[in-house]
Design goal:
The structure is a homooctamer of 249-residue chains.
Chain A: H1 3-14, H2 20-28, E1 32-34, E2 39-41, H3 44-48, E3 54-55, H4 61-72, E4 78-81, H5 85-94, E5 99-101, E6 106-109, E7 122-126, H6 132-144, E8 149-152, H7 161-164, H8 167-172, E9 175-180, H9 186-193, E10 198-202, H10 214-221, E11 228-230, H11 236-247
Parallel strand pairs in A: 3-4, 7-8, 7-9, 9-10, 10-11
Antiparallel strand pairs in A: 1-2, 4-6, 5-6
Chain lengths: 249, 249, 249, 249, 249, 249, 249, 249
């Protein structure tokens, strides 16, 4: 149950529109629900501001659907990431209103009451076209968490004027997520130009000594621009959650 | 020149207390100054909110002093990190008012006008006693950047009740920096308990397969608590700068 | 030939119910049997308490069936792990009584006389749903070795209350096997809460800098909870054998 | 406070020899004590059967002495590992009864009432002379935890008859700790010969492609003898704690 | 052209049975032949005792056949390794007398005059059934190079009596090739028991921290039995060539 | 727009054959064009001497075609590398004049006016047949950049006379690109024999401890022949661009 | 003997000013000279345009002096790199005219006749003050090889305006050597701005996940700016030799 | 006791010159002798042809002397490697006849009766001067094992004529040991030129991406010259033992 909904509940008890027993019943649900193969954490929305997100990799379509249905019943919205096409199809059959994003490999069902929007927007900057799936995972996740999104695409440092000519976008953002593979150098340049928090996402784009994303990961961890933080390789989801933690503060 | 000082300058021009020519002269200084072995970026304070910080490793005491003196002349304060004892001693002779922190290996000289404090405080959590030097580097840096500091020390997950019993501190912080070596598991536990941004700093504490900090670095990058971001091994400085970017937003 | 069966044999010689020549014949079989592509160690049951287990990876279905048939003839039971579906199908045709577990990828045929149960039970704790195949391999193996099994599923540290609320299960177990991928932090938390032996199994669940299980492997090797031991990535089988060595002591 | 001592306390309350108020006072001490740089977990002895052990690396002599004095006051005994010579000297001055073991780099002060001995003994097997410091750390730790110790030294597999001729020692042990560097092959051979739990400790002995212990670590993790578990490189302490968990079960 | 054949040629010139001009013509062929995509080294047989071997990986079936036909024309025999099934089929159509070994993935065509057998035999020892493909590559190669072969299969150190009971085979060999994956410990044990040269071949058998053969490779490089030499992971071919260099000396 | 074409434009303005307004229009095109998923850098030809090259990996056929069409419109020629067969087919349909090279996996469309040839030729040397795809990528790229090409194929150091007998080719080249996998030793030998710039390209050819090209990469970075520079594994394209930078100087 | 000196010799023979016998004697010296511990390659100057350079690491001062004296006798100049202070002192005593550069750790003795200067200059760009020793090694070496040097210091990408404001220097250079540690991103940015050959030198500056230079090495190998080539970590010498090969072409 | 000495003993029994009781006494000594910190294997000389060699690293001077004295008493000769200067000094005091080789860091005492020389000589080839300590360890060891030694020094592939001009040495050797750091390419070139067994020893000479010998180790494992075998980094001792196993066959 999301924080806002609990606040509503309590307000209604306070103003007498909800009897204590009704509020108790709504809150009494066991915060964790066991499905045998999974233990759903229904109070995460209350504790962290968003419900548990379904990480699709390594789960069967049946497991994904089963968890999604349980979460959907609470009305807080559903987000699933890293979905195989078969799991996405099964999910669409079970929850027809869910939105499938093929580039991001995510499925999203909006909550019954929309989230309050965050105080500022998230800017997602990508170095190249091949980084788009990770960037889209970040964008979908941030949208689900109530953050407005801006995008700046294919502005890698090999042609740095493409970035410099859009500098006003860096100045307008509340948080910047930089998505880059290969040399990952874009994060350092953006980190040096911007004043706001910069979260770097290395991608597994590249070949040879890119080593599936290790090269940009190391670049970003060693960024000479102070204050750049890093998430795991290809982890657009994690970057967006970190950004939402900042933007909702 | 720090942002606040430029704003003052402009305000004084606006209210007539400073003639245009005087403001021009103050702003006209070339934004970079070349010392032969270094190119000082004097406008960083204006661009990023704090002056260039001196990274002491790999610099001779003479180089450190020379750069510090140039920065100090602008009155925006001086921060130097990773100082060898000899460099610290030389710095204290040159700038007697500078504060040397032996645990953090930092030297700090406050600016002539204090920074506006950030909107919330930074909580620095450490897993063990051996992580203190890195935690102190973070604390000194954040203090220099105008952030109030709280500390929660030696609360590693091997005795998780030490952390759980202080949970209210997690709830009160604006940003949490988690400093941990060995298994680095503290970051995931804190990330799961807190709502606010969590920045994880792996340390090179440990032996054998800790590999100089790679083990906690990987743990933190793979945190099962979504939204934890990571900085380089032992990089207390970088974590504090990232925290300050968030807290001053 | 299992230890218990040899003890029976000797007891029957002692009480006169088995003539010496008969016992000799039963024992005289060459302890190793060569199949050309394999050398079966029939005395392992006598030496180690359980017969040789068939590691299915890298063996053709014909090789798996051929080894299993030879072991089955001794009546001590058969366990095969890491079976490809084709090998499992061939095995089911050859030994119809064998039980195939698709999640664990194991096949198990009970011995003609059941094993004496161990002095205490094994608790298998998993961090997430994706860790289940490894956890099941451990459970099937421990069951084959005569250990009662308890399970605690999907209790990763991102929602640590899920674990803390079931603490009595940690206290009741004789040995705990912790199965976790991604950050592997669960092993340290369990190791700090429990008094009994804790065996950690890293899994290859995760992506990016999880590096196919290296991240949780390192986390576990560096556990700040003293006395946690570790087995190879995804090696549920090995963890169960180690647990059985302890529980049968 | 150690488990046995709490049990005594409670028994004395039960038989009337200790008034309830006195028992309360003894138990009431805050389970954690903060020294600013450390948070001592005084209830670990109660929870885990032995008091918190002081890991000496990365602590100043003053910190080591300060923590040791606080623990010693409780009378449950003190164990410190990885001590630099200066820390050892400071400790000997502060606690003259403490025993310094230069090979193991440990200091040990016996508790006021001896621990109940474990149900079986620990056998420490080493591959070569250079592995002795790690083996001794294991032996001192196990001794402090109440386990009788046997030793089998310099029996690496290059001369396997040295091990085979002492096979009765393997059969008599309750747990076997195998300490080996270079190729680490001894763990597999012992694991195949013994029925009891085998804990392998890789050491950083060797050169070139031993990579500071990675080679034997990998060997041991990949042991073809099922049921061998592994601890961190050079972690004799951890192996002994794991052994004590087993032997005290 | 093989060394023996050149010696024959020269002997025939010496005894007058071959005119100088005929010998010249036979020898005059350009030692390298260019196919555009390959430069065949026809004098390798003369220089090194065996013709150039075709490494099948990364070559199209057409390229394999084309090179094999050119080498076959010289009558010195053909050996191809790492053949994909399609390349093997194409080769069998082009050179019907060639022998395909599906386990070893090799194709071999005997030379028109047999090689002189080596002074002693090669013993190929394998740790497990899954190591057989690599062991067979070694056996086929050594056979092609004129070395008699013995085999000792599935004698890994988890059941060391299987090896000890066949010790006379170790004593009878001229060279021993040890093929092992997982922990690779067999090489050290054999190296300690045998007097003759021992060549270790790590295999990519295993999972998790075996890292595709790195674990046994490191084990073997760090063998505590002096005088064990190592070849690349899965390189049965290279081990056999090294053995043949020794056995033909 | 390529540098030569801008020079022509300006020359025509200078001699009056092109009115200022016409030149302005040709030059006025926005230097970057946004396709949503890509930001094309049309002025790269002007800045760097060749238009942006399309890196095919990670792009859909539709994306490849769309970018290629935009670039083709400027008449400066199109080069695409790392193309999947489907992308190549789509490209051939869209731009029928484009040349597909199946070995190199490149597609090339010549510019409307040919490039001025470079001052000297590029020699591409390969160690083995399996290195040909990378060598061809280098050759196609260099040809597109206006450099004449020579080839020396399959001259690895295991038969060093194959290289030594063609030494005049090393002396005649303006730049040498050495393409080698496995041990990568060819680069050092060529670097020692030649006077001209030598660029080494490690390939992912090989198995086992070649680690997908890391072995030859390290060999080449550590070349004992001074002055050899290195590009990424399998990066024939990058080597050719570097060579063209040199040859057009 | 340097190429120019041989050309002079031959010219003097041609015009009669040197008798054939004198030229023969000068040329007859054995091209390699054995000192027992070293084999000096006196014809390298003739073959490669500069004499053998003494790599000081791992050589005793006596060995360094002995080799330097033999080379100095030929009058072609002496260059020694990676000198320990003792070796430098010994060299200065033996060859008083030699120049010691403490930052670069090089010693240089000019040849009796100066080298012809190269056709263009070398620009050495450094990211930070700590990269200066490597940059100076490159500068001294290039100077010894006859290349004019320009320097651009401390222009890392965290403050990219420092680089952009000096762009005319990039345009004026014949070759650019970029020296950078930490994230190594400067090479990509320079590679995107410049038309001329760019050689990147990663340095071991940095900490934590910089891994002694691996991070910038990978960044540079994966540069998204095509045509950047790379040399070994800290190898300023090698970069300069590569640059000289280009500038003297 | 060395094999030859046992053979003598038995011969003297056979011809009556030694009574059975005397022979028994000589043979009766327990084959292993325990010193507490070491278990000496006195029968290794009998089993493997040479006595146990003392590996000095990680042993105190007292331990080295104590083991050496026990071995010396048997008259089979003593060899100690990797000696620290203090251990060497202590050894010289205890066994004045022992020979200390400062380059190789070995001490050698000849046996009372000389070993029978091997059937052919060992050629030790080194790439550079810095490789000499490892090469000398190989030479001293081989000499102790009865093999005549030849040397070819500083013939790295950057000047390949130095090696080609001495090709007759390669042809004359019974076994060749190639010692090389940096790129390690020399092993492949020698392996391609020679017919006899080639053993490659990578050294930790070099810097940056040589990674303490990993670069040449990988080069050698991936040698494109078939039949090259490899020992551990800097393991001159192991290479010599392997060579002696071959030369004494």
């Amino acid at each position: 149950m999301r924080r806002e909904r609990v606040r509503d509940l309590l307000a209604r008890v306070a103003d007498g529109s909800l009897p204590v027993e009704g509020a108790l019943a709504a809150l009494a649900a066991d915060p964790t629900e066991s499905l045998g193969f999974a233990t759903i954490d229904h109070h995460r929305a209350l504790r962290q501001g968003f419900p548990e997100v379904i990480y699709g990799a390594g789960k069967t379509p049946e497991q994904v659907v089963s968890i999604a249905e349980r979460i959907a019943e609470h009305g807080d919205g559903v987000l699933a990431t890293r979905l195989a096409p078969e799991a996405a199809a099964a999910l669409s059959r079970a929850l027809p209103a869910i939105e499938w994003n093929a580039t991001a490999r995510t499925a999203y069902l909006a909550p019954s009451t929309p989230l309050a929007p965050s105080r500022a927007s998230l800017l997602v900057v990508t170095a190249g076209t091949s980084d788009l799936p990770v960037a889209e995972e970040a964008a979908v996740t941030a949208h689900a968490l109530g953050c407005p999104i801006e995008r700046l695409t294919d502005v890698g440092v090999a042609g740095i004027h493409r970035l410099l000519s859009r500098r006003e976008m860096l100045d307008a953002a509340g948080v910047i997520v930089v998505v880059a593979g290969m040399d990952g150098a874009l994060a350092s340049v953006v980190g040096g130009l911007a004043r706001v928090p910069v979260i770097a996402v290395p991608t597994s784009v590249g070949y040879g000594a890119a080593f599936g994303g290790i090269a940009p990961l190391l670049t970003m961890l060693n960024s000479c621009a102070a204050g750049v933080t890093v998430v795991n390789i290809d982890n657009g989801f994690g970057a967006a959650v970190a950004a939402a933690r900042i933007l909702h503060a």
